[in-house]
Every structure is written in structure tokens, then in C-alpha cells.
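Input record (one chain):
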Amino acid sequence: QVQVVETGGGSVQTGGSMTLSCSAIGFKYNNFYMGWFRQGPGKEREGVASIWIGRNIIDYADSVKGRFTITQDGAKAIVNLEMNNLQPEDTAMYYCGTGGMKLHPRTYKKWGQGTQVTVSS
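The corresponding structure, as predicted from the sequence alone:
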């Protein structure tokens, strides 16, 4: 059974940095997408960054390009999201997903429990 486990999150001031980590445990495939998504209060879930495990194909939402970096931890199904120059509009619940396609949340099959990121001005 696949489990998606997120770590990281918390509170930071504007301009600060934070790193989130996601592990996909029990995923059987060698090539698949893992992605980070976020959902603010009253908003739909949106894609932030995704990476094709095994091929290192990466996509970012325009709103985070140049500030966020998604990386894979070696050959493991672990991805990290390094977030720099955080802004109040980045405040949201962040979710990690697996088994989907790029930044399209509705295509993802498994999700973690989510971790809150709060950026204060």
C-alpha cells in the first residue's frame, strides 16, 4: 500500500526560507511523477512544482519560478521543495502527491496529509 508522508512546514516571516520533504513509500513504479501542491482557504488546490522521478523532468508554477526548487533525493522516491523569498501569498496547506501528471492535481492518485506553511508580513 502506498503511503505519502510529508515533513516540514511551519511559520516564517516574509522573505524567509523553508524546506518541505515528501516520501512515497511502497510505490512500485520506477518512473512516475511526484508533485507539491497547495490549497489556501477557500481556494482550489493548485500545482506548485512537480518532478518526474527517474527522468528528472521538472515543472513549476509561474508564481514560484525562481523562488522554489524541487529536487529528488538520489534514487529514492523522496522529493524536497526548497522555498525561498517566501511571501504572504504563499501561505497555504501544502500537499505532496504521487502518480499523477505534472501540475494537474486531479490526475494524482495518492496524497499526503498536508503540512501548513504560514508566511507572516
